[in-house]
Here is the input.
Amino acid sequence: MAALLNDLDQQLELVNDRPISTIFFGGGTPSLFSARSIDQILEGIRARVSLTDDCETTLESNPGSAETAKYQAYREAGINRLSIGVQSFDDDKLRRLGRIHSGDEAKAAIDMAFSSGFMRLNIDLMYGLENQTRAEAIADVEAAMRFGISHLSWYQLTIERNTAFWSRPPILPDADIVEPWLESVRNLLAKFDIYQYEVSAWSTEGEESRHNLNYWLFGDYLAIGAGAHGKVSVGDGVYRFQRTRHPAHYLEEFGHSRTTSRIKTLTRIPDEDIVGEFMMNALRLRKGAPATLLHQRTGKPSDSISKALEALEARGLMQSGKERLVTTPNGYRYLDSVVEAFF
Here is the structure.
């Protein structure tokens, strides 16, 4: 906890008196921290920066009695939104994913979250799992909807480097098999007034993750902790930074209070990439972004993308009009190809 707050101390010059509107405890299993530890971290943050009155404060949690027993205390500490990594309610699929919780434990965790007073709750579900059928994927979403949740993260399993699956990859359904599942889930969730607002995120109106929306709208964010990534606007440039991934190395670097600025670790996003990075994020949103935001967030004029927009509009991949930057339904389907046009 001391290292985390020391890390924050060395980023304070990047705040420029701006209030913090969201806090997200993520990246692994932060709910393994005690509720008192979470409370102390939040107290330390409040002592260093100002928070908005409606600051969204999310904690990621995995199902399991050791974590769910602390939900009430987390809420009292100031957490007002939970994100539970269910992944599936099917015990066989959970076993294949290497998860240690069961489907019943996942359901118990959701019940516990609601009974602990959490009104805002996200459930993470994966699809395209090993040997998964369309009916099984739909059944997971139907199970989640029985709880009356207002936000769902539903995303396809992908194999990442440096994971057990990378060295021993499972046999996953082909893309042309799982693609029709999306329309089935879209129709199912519409019955609950839940709609897709981002590539892998679905919610009722007003229940979108404000923290994640800031990412997609190319906003600034600080980052503390091993492996944390941040993005900030400094002067006339936009910069990213990343903390060392290994916890022991992180503690060596931040375990003792320092006054040295960490601003020297920032890496500027190259001018030739910044428009593409903005569009790569903004176009993940079904409603896109206001056209004026391009200049506000990148410093680049709107005519810097005019040729690319015209070409994409002619192919029916971007909607015409000057108010918003947004794809057509077909463009959203082939989003990677659309984004490539801006690099």
